[in-house]
From TrEMBL:
It comes from the Eukaryota. Transmembrane segments: none annotated. This is Disease resistance N-terminal domain-containing protein. GO terms for molecular function: nucleotide binding.
Length: 88
């Protein structure tokens, strides 16, 4: 009886080790399998980020130009009002 139990213990250890090793190999294979898709997703995200930053920069520059135009128009209006006041 003791010999039968002693023979089953190494068998149980081998079975557990085999299951854990198989699980680890499957997990690594899955990571490698998905790596290409994950990498492409990261590249796409980086492209979108760069594009969004460029759009934000363009919008900031357009806003600055619009403010400059507004300042020029205000200066023109003030100058015109001063000229009109002198004539009267």
């Amino acid at each position: 009886m003791a010999e039968a139990v002693a023979g089953q213990i190494p068998s149980a250890f081998v079975s557990i080790a085999k299951d854990k090793l198989g699980s680890a190999i499957a997990e690594q294979a899955n990571l490698l399998w998905n790596f290409g898709g994950d990498l492409e997703g990261m590249k796409d995200a980086e492209r979108r980020s760069v594009k969004e930053k460029l759009v934000q920069l363009l919008m900031k520059r357009l806003k600055d130009v619009a403010l400059d135009i507004s300042d020029v128009l205000e200066d023109y209006q003030d100058t015109r009002d001063q000229g009109t006041a002198k004539v009267q």
